[in-house]
From TrEMBL:
One of its GO terms (cellular component) is cilium. This is CFA47 protein. It comes from Panurus biarmicus. GO terms for biological process: sperm axoneme assembly.
Amino acid sequence: LNDNPSQYILKLSGTLRSPKLDFHPPFLMLTPVPLDVETEAVITIFPQDFIRQSCITVKPPELELADGSRICPFSVQFLEGQEIVLSSDGTTNALTCRISFRSSKPMSVLGELLFIDQEENRSLEQQTIVFLPYTPTWHCTALIKKL
């Protein structure tokens, strides 16, 4: 100021946190059903380290059958909306989600449900699902891992 140059050193520090999703329960068990009958489970998703409001979408796996046709036997419905809302104290709301499976053809599935925020951020954790129809029950295992 006033032709008097002054030097200031400004030090900034911070913590980089990536948004993530925690799933509860971490293990789902879906009952076996006849062909073309729906089975479902409800999970709760706990968003962590989001710094702004976001909307979560889900990309279920599309599967190729032996005849070359493609189907998506999974559907996902958010029971109370899919908006992640930050409260004034920095916490986020939990999301309740219904995962459904229906197939007119017998199949085993190893696939991933990708949970993606509105900015197409795929560094979010994901839920991997496994259906094993050759056991007394079909197991849907949620494995949390980074992309």
